[in-house]
Amino acid sequence: xxxxxxxxxxxxxxxxxxxxxxxxxxxxxxxxxxxxxxxxxxxxxxxxxxxxxxxxxxxxxxxxxxxxxxxxxxxxxxxxxxxxxxxxxxxxxxxxxxxxxxxxxxxxxxxxxxxxxxxxxxxxxxxxxxxxxxxxxxxxxxxxxxxxxxxxxxxxxxxxxxxxxxxxxxxxxxxxxxxxxxxxxxxxxxxxxxxxxxxxxxxxxxxxxxxxxxxxxxxxxxxxxxxxxxxxxxxxxxxxxxxxxxxxxxxxxxxxxxxxxxxxxxxxxxxxxxxxxxxxxxxxxxxxxxxxxxxxxxxxxxxxxxxxxxxxxxxxxxxxxxxxxxxxxxxxxxxxxxxxxxxxxxxxxxxxxxxxxxxxxxxxxxxxxxxxxxxxxxxxxxxxxxxxxxxxxxxxxxxxxxxxxxxxxxxxxxxxxxxxxxxxxxxxxxxxxxxxxxxxxxxxx
Length: 445
Description:
Radius of gyration: 22 Å
Number of domains: 2
CATH topology of the largest domain: Porin
Mean pLDDT: 88
Low-confidence stretches: none
Strand content: over 45%
């Protein structure tokens, strides 16, 4: 673990430092004291060109003018939704069909290039991202990224596209979740998504991290600049406290693959506010869809949703979440609670729409049944609101055949009662009720 930073450059787990079985690697000016459970200092190394850094990628170039890493993430998925109910009835009495799939897809392809140019303070993260189940839909293929200037470990300033720090799963630890690229329904329902803006992040204390982002809207994927308003009025803030060890695993992962010998803990708080317009919403099948929905799954901007002649064109969105977790010797318990407030509806005949308050939670437990080889997990999630209360349960396993995070075989069983979220890259359709099963084979280097 990182005991104490000793220089001005930031030491970011998975970016400027990491660890293997018997050594710690550092880069970009990271200087710190490291320790192990036995209290002995591990060997410190610096990566060399063409070498592979686990969970960072291959170092292609490293010279006084810059550094280039290349990484690849992809997974194939077999998805079976055939046992879902054929139809569901929304909160307004409308009966709708549920598309029930059974197919195999190379579900996602993600290829980032990262590093620095001229000075380690000037960092870049540029990528191509494809969601193959969304062929033909908006933002099926995305070329994006961001640029960051790192002043010191206390503050970095970035601009471009990144995820709003609206919930724990959008803090930047993707794809290190228990399941493969599938958030729980509460997480998916309440969160913000990827958007364009400017942000500040760093350390307030070695055990306290922060991020503040000011952005165009809740989700920019599938939304052109001509669809945005000119108010630049989306803000998102997060603070995470890591009281015991000062870290919570590689990239802040879910689960304890790292097998902490010392108890690791975290507490996180997030707050997001945005004035959202109908025109600035992504398509319902967007690669990272973040539509504002009611708890029955209805998109709030749907014409005549609240009655004949009533159409919402603008809404004030506020959301906060609190998460906590504990890890020790391969076991982890992690949870998050959410609250969302929708108000100040504007549009055609919207004066009679009362403010909407929704809440929810998710809870996940996991254990490394065989260290570095087999992980088992289970979890549940619920969403509560005026337009219905929805819930789900999941259980799954991750098998790591080469005893490294870079390759895993995941199997997951889920039961959902009226999913309030859904799109082609997500394992549920909106309104889903019943069991879903999927198998995923993932590579991530």
